[in-house]
Specification:
The complex is a heterodimer of chains A (about 110) and B (about 120). Chain A is about 0% helix and about 50% strand. Chain A has no helices and eleven strands. In chain A, the strands form two sheets. In chain A, strands 2, 4, 5, 6, 9, 10 and 11 form a seven-stranded mixed beta sheet that branches. In chain A, strands 1-3-8-7 form a four-stranded antiparallel beta sheet, with no helix packed on it. Chain A is globular and about 35 Å long. Chain A starts with a strand and ends with a strand. Helices cover about 0% and strands about 50% of the residues of chain B. In chain B, strands 2, 5, 6, 10, 11 and 12 form a six-stranded mixed beta sheet that branches. In chain B, strands 3-9-8-7 form a four-stranded antiparallel beta sheet, with no helix packed on it. Chain B is globular. Chain B starts with a strand and ends with a strand. The chains are: A mainly beta (about 110), B mainly beta (about 120). Chains A and B meet through strand 5, strand 9 and strand 10 of A and strand 5, strand 6, strand 10 and strand 11 of B.
Chain lengths: ~110, ~120
Amino acid sequence: EAAVTQSPRNKVTVTGGNVTLSCRQTNSHNYMYWYRQDTGHGLRLIHYSYGAGNLQIGDVPDGYKATRTTQEDFFLLLELASPSQTSLYFCASSDNGDYEQYFGPGTRLTVL
Amino acid sequence: AQKVTQTQTSISVVEKTTVTMDCVYETRDSSYFLFWYKQTASGEIVFLIRQDSYKKENATVGHYSLNFQKPKSSIGLIITATQIEDSAVYFCAMREDEVGSNYNVLYFGSGTKLTVEP
């Protein structure tokens, strides 16, 4: 079973702050994803990648950057955090875009 | 517009009974994939079961099965012999298969909270 870890698990920052969320998967999956989860919206895709150095735009990318440095590591960057980005963030991975995704434990981000 | 809609916000059932959770989706693609995920109280999200649009047979995994009604764009999740530990939020999701701007995007419904009582 895929192992996906995220750090930090909780983060509090102020408006305008700079935040980096980290994700690592250890099952050699090609695809990695960043989602945000908000009440009433389910999960929404922010960015995804199908390999090191690759980045694709998801459904709600505004205000977020991402970088895939290796096959294992995928980072989500908020360079000017805003209160609207307060959310629960999940990272996921899959072997192929068609296949089921395996999720990390989530990072709760609060922007004051 | 919502691509995946789950109208049941919460359901409560008695242990050992069968429950069905509804999900309807919207797509113009002829090929697509449908998934159900479970989110436990701890926040963990786990893949449960999948249906490929070209398959006529309903998928079954353990005590989870699907009711795929393609003409109605509907994919219901059926849990038989429910257990207390099935209490969770269940999400339906869809991925369209035709190459385009939405390729590889997994669209989620807003979830149905299931409570299984003794």
